[in-house]
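tool_call predict_complex ligand=L-homoserine
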Amino acid sequence: MTTPLRLGIAGLGTVGVGVVKIVQQHADLLSRRSGRPVAITAVSARTRHKDRGVDVEAYAWEDDPVALATREDVDVFVELMGGSDGPAKAATEAAIAAGKDVVTANKAMLAIHGQELAEAAEAAGRVIRFEAAVAGGIPVVKALTEGLAGNEITRVMGVMNGTCNYILTRMQSAGLPYDEVFEEASKLGYLEADPELDVGGIDAGHKLALLASIAFGTRVDFGGVELEGIGEITIEDIHRAADMGFRIKLLGVAQMTGRGLEQRMTPCLVPASSPLGQLEGGTNMVVLEGDSVGQIVLRGAGAGEGPTASAVMADVIDIARGIRVATFGQPAAGLEQARRARVAAAAPYYLRMQLQDKPGALAKVAAVLGDAGISIDRMRQYGHAEPTAPVLIVTHKTTRDALELARSALAGTGVVEGSPVAIRIEKV
Ligand code: NAP
Ligand code: HSE
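tool_result ok
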């Protein structure tokens, strides 16, 4: 009889319970695919006596996740508590020091401490696997580290926060303002305990930073991700963008340029007819581009019990099979510290402003844009409202710096009310 791979699971919330269910329901399948049984030996959570919808009585209980991580009868420490520091990090470090492999869904911890943890794991001859940390059930980490390992990756892009995509698509389909849909998402339990992690783009930024590290062989640099959340997106912009053939998405883009590594997680316009433009609800989509393979599009559930546990189990099975891949796809010590690109590559922009509806007003706007070196591609004015009317402009490619210059100059023309809204249009 082959020896089982013994799991110690810290965290029995949404994801932890999903993992317990898979181990309990698919024991034979896991054993056949892994070449050895996969067994849970011990578990930990904050509250011991709690109905979690699964029976965990057969497993040893530890109040302290560090004690769980270092148990003799645990081969793989499965960290499903969350949090960038605190017990998750302490227990992960303890597990590595005690010679355990680690599987985690914790993007916050890896985005901040990934490099030091990966180095510690490699020094100890252990692996850290994190498929579940990025885009839930979508096997994107495996796609990048293994399936596309022969490619030079040119761009990684995607919608990686289901809550934001739910909010933006719901605003559009129901014609509801941001605040109302935010409340709705909150009642549905979609938001993280700290909602800013979702709507501020932080959660998705963590995920992008992890993918960028694998894609470009660089150290995880979450601090280098340009972050902008969706809190300022109005229903008016969603409708106007739709009129021009676009959808607004919280879009992550990472690419290596001559100016350094560019990482952005910001609201962008994408063509409504593109796969990203058509992505509805809480679904995630990751687009990977490689020099040989071209473009790969991966779409699926980015969160939830089943999809996330599915990704955790994929990592567990790899370990049971003896597949040992470096945390970020190559030895951590060899990962380079990327130079940060100071400004994003030039792109077309969507500009919306309230313009006085009188002779010469538009000429002043055109002059300001011209002076900033910005060329107009398309323009549309809505109605003839007094005293101002909404005007939309789609520019040709320009830089954010030129655009900001133009925005402040527009405020001084006397014909533009307030500050124009500017949203990047991404070529997808
Ligand atoms: P969750 O439902 O809030 O569950 C967290 C679990 O950790 C709970 O069982 C909690 O115990 C336990 N816990 C918290 N602090 C602890 C401590 N100090 N000691 C022992 N146990 C502790 O979280 P989740 O949604 O399952 O998420 C877990 C991880 O997966 C996070 O890193 C998250 O970012 C990641 N993730 C989640 C999803 C998703 O769809 N939920 C998707 C992708 C990645 P009690 O139950 O006793 O309170
Ligand atoms: N809050 C995240 C989301 C959960 O909405 O996508 C999965 O990481």
